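Amino acid chain:
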Amino acid sequence: MMTDALLAFFHYSAIFVLFAFLTVEAMLLRNPLDANTVRLIARVDLWFFGAALLTLVSGLMRLFWGAKGVGFYSPNPVFHVKAGLFIAIGMLSFPPTLRYISWARQLKADANFLPSESERRLVRRLVMIELHIASVLPLAAVLMARGIGLG
C-alpha cells in the first residue's frame, strides 16, 4: 500500500513539474524574444525534458510495481489513448527543442541574433498544442484508474 502511494506521489509530482515547465515555455514565447529569453527558454526546455522523462519513468514504475499492475491497465483502450497522447506530446516537443538549440547556437555566434517573429509564433503554437493535449491526460488517467474503457 505504501509503495503504491509513493509511486503515485512521484508520478503526480513529475506531471506537475512537466506542466509547470511547459507553461513557462508558453509564457516566455508570448512576446518578442530578447537574448536573455532565448538563453532561458533553452534551459527551461531542458528541465521540461527531464520532467517528461521522470513522468515516463514514474508512470512505468506504477504500471509494473503499482497496486493495480499491468494486468489491469494494458487491456484498457484508455490506457493506450493516454500513452498515445504522451507520445504525441513528445513528438510535438522535438521541433521547439531543435529551434531552441539552434537559436542558442546562433546567439552564441552572433550576439545580435534574435529569432524572427514568425518563428517565435510557430514555436509557441506547437507548445500550446502540447499543453492542450496534455490537459486531456488527467481525464484519461481518471477514466483508466476506474476501469472505464474495459467494457
Summary: The chain has a mean pLDDT of 96. The radius of gyration is 18 Å. The longest helix spans residues 77-109.
